[in-house]
Amino acid sequence: MQSRSILFVLNAQTPDAQITEAAEAAAGDNTHLVCLLLGQAPALPLYSYGMSPYGGMSIPDNWNETMADAQKAQADRVNEIEGLLAKSEVSSAVHSALSMTLDVKHHVARLARISDEAFFAASLRDEPEILREAVAGVLFHSPIGFRMNGSAAQRAGRVFVAWNSSLAASAAVHAAMPYLKEAEEVVIACFDPVMSEARDGPDPGTDVAKWLSHHGCKVTVSQFPSGGREIGQAIQDRAKEFGADLVVMGAYGHARMIQTVLGGTTRSLLEQTDLPVLFAH
Question: The UspA domain covers which part of the protein (predicted)?
Fold first, then answer.
């Protein structure tokens, strides 16, 4: 997987060792590493959004100082990251986005549109609202997928594809093609498939397996009953049983709002930390 551009989305808490590992791996693969440092801009106190009796906004006296401190901390971390990348002699760029939460997806999407794949640092989980918007930026505003868990320098000998014939699942397989071609073994896993022409076909999974075989992938197909378990948990259990180095799955195959409120397979796989997962929509 050489000569690609990887978008590494991180925050100030991402360990130096993880950044160095990503840089060294990228240098070895002739990959261009694009680091995006996300930071949450200080929010104005709620009362600042109201109007005073004289018609002006009430801004705290120390607001400029607060904002300047945040900008300096962000700039200092950018300099540190650039120093780490320079030591690895990797082709790279560092971008900074100090913004309100709702603007994060736009910063992420802008760079995702000119990258081949994104990788999210585990430290983003410490800021769940930032992570949520970063996920939306890739999935709903760019053509690529992203990986979570594992390392930016992921190698996958055994790949587990959660397949259900949906557009999201197809997008994930397309996004994962570089890993599927290099894998020693790929399993197409269908959970509770509906064996009809309108849904998963008479023999679920065999169509995508045949297509991947044309690309030289070493593919087998398995059909699993969920056994009453939530599908996300069933995927995790079977992937671990298989010894998967990477799980590939479509994200938000159902309405995102429903999954956000009620949970869902995507949310289940996003929240777990044991298995590296590549998501696409």
Answer: 228-279
Distance between CA atoms of residues 117 and 108, nearest Å:
12
Closest CA to 248 of 193, 192, 134, 166: 166
Indicate the domain borders of the chain: 5-44+61-148, 158-280
CA distances from 82 to 19, 33, 77 (A): 10, 11, 9
Mean of pLDDT over the chain:
90
pLDDT tens profile 108-154: 999 999 999 999 999 999 999 999 999 999 999 999 999 999 988 87
Whole-number pLDDT of residue 258: 43
Within the chain, how many helices (H) and strands (E) appear?
Answer: 10, 10
Strand order in the sheet with 158-162: 92-99, 32-40, 5-11, 117-120, 146-148, 277-280, 246-250, 158-162, 185-191, 219-224
What architecture is domain 158-280?
A: 3-Layer(aba) Sandwich (3.40)
